[in-house]
Amino acid sequence: GALERADESIAHIEASSSRMTVLVEDLLSLARLDEGRGIDITQQVAVRPLIADAADDLHALDPERTIRRGAVLLDESGRNSTPRLRFREGPMPDIEINGDGSRLRQVITNIVGNIHRYTPGDSPVEVALGMVPASIGPESLARMPSTERSMHRFLEAAEVGRSMQVGMNYAVIRFIDHGPGVPVASQAQIFERFYTADPSRARQKGGTGLGMSIAQSVVKAHRGFICASSSDGGGLTLTVILPVGPLEPVGVARQQTKVSTKGDRRGRKSRRS
């Protein structure tokens, strides 16, 4: 009953002060992010090394696991169907964004920690990075809830962005696992504080249930978007979308470069704001 569960919890807290320390750090982290503190998004961050390091970390944790790396592409097949993101094995592109390097590393470490905790150590994983243009602004993107419907909205905007050459370039990061997955109805819940898909596994491998909330807060502070969806063939896919910069239409880019060399400071300032 409830009393037995309370006794178990008390015993568990007494036995793991280190886990409490992690929990307190995570709560402080969230409190700072809630207040807009503890994050500096003015650094130039190379995204590919962050993902490569995370893949190496996962390999160190689970040496039996196959980890494939590749590019994220917008699937162009099926003219009438909803566009989707596709994984293509191979080199990951070099993408730089304005952001907080250590906080973005934390996002990716938290995702990898979840894969390690909740999927069998020998189940395969794909990690991927790509640049996708989309006709949606970062403010709108950051306001969207972490749901499959929002993901569809982004993909529709990506289709328009690609065909019309308008909008923003976004870095799209994907971690695709093939573990037990999360039921579709619960996928948006994994970003809620203290939500754990499998509490017994979390206790076993040391999760606070705050990792995905922190990831979501950091991503939103970068005016980005994060969501969970089902992997093809079962499992969970986490997608992180972060703004890179305005999309320059083909042919106009050269003219714009000429204009900007004249030192139009005012224009440059207004573009940045």
In brief, what are we looking at here?
The chain is of the alpha+beta class and 273 residues long.
Written overview of the protein:
The protein contains ten helices and eight strands. With 273 residues, it is α+β, with helices and mostly antiparallel strands. The protein has one domain (42-262): Heat Shock Protein 90 (2-Layer Sandwich). The chain has a six-stranded mixed sheet, sandwiched between helices. It has a two-stranded antiparallel sheet with strand order 1-4. Helix 3 packs parallel to helix 4 (101-118). The longest helix has 18 residues, at 17-34. Mean pLDDT is 84; it is low at 251-273.
Q: How much of the residues is beta strand, in percent?
A: 15-25%
Biggest beta sheet attributes: 6 strands, mixed
Just give the CATH class.
Answer: Alpha Beta
Quickly give the structural class.
alpha+beta
C-alpha end-to-end distance: 56 Å
Order of helices and strands: HHEHEEEHEHHEHHEEHH
What is the total tally of β strands? 8
What fold name goes in the CATH topology slot? Heat Shock Protein 90
CATH superfamily: Histidine kinase-like ATPase, C-terminal domain
Mean pLDDT: 84
Radius of gyration: 20 Å
| Shape, per Cα inertia axes | globular
Largest sheet: spatial strand order: 3-2-5-6-8-7
List low-pLDDT spans. 251-273
- Quickly count the helices: 10
Number of domains: 1
CATH architecture: 2-Layer Sandwich
Helix-residue proportion: 40-55%
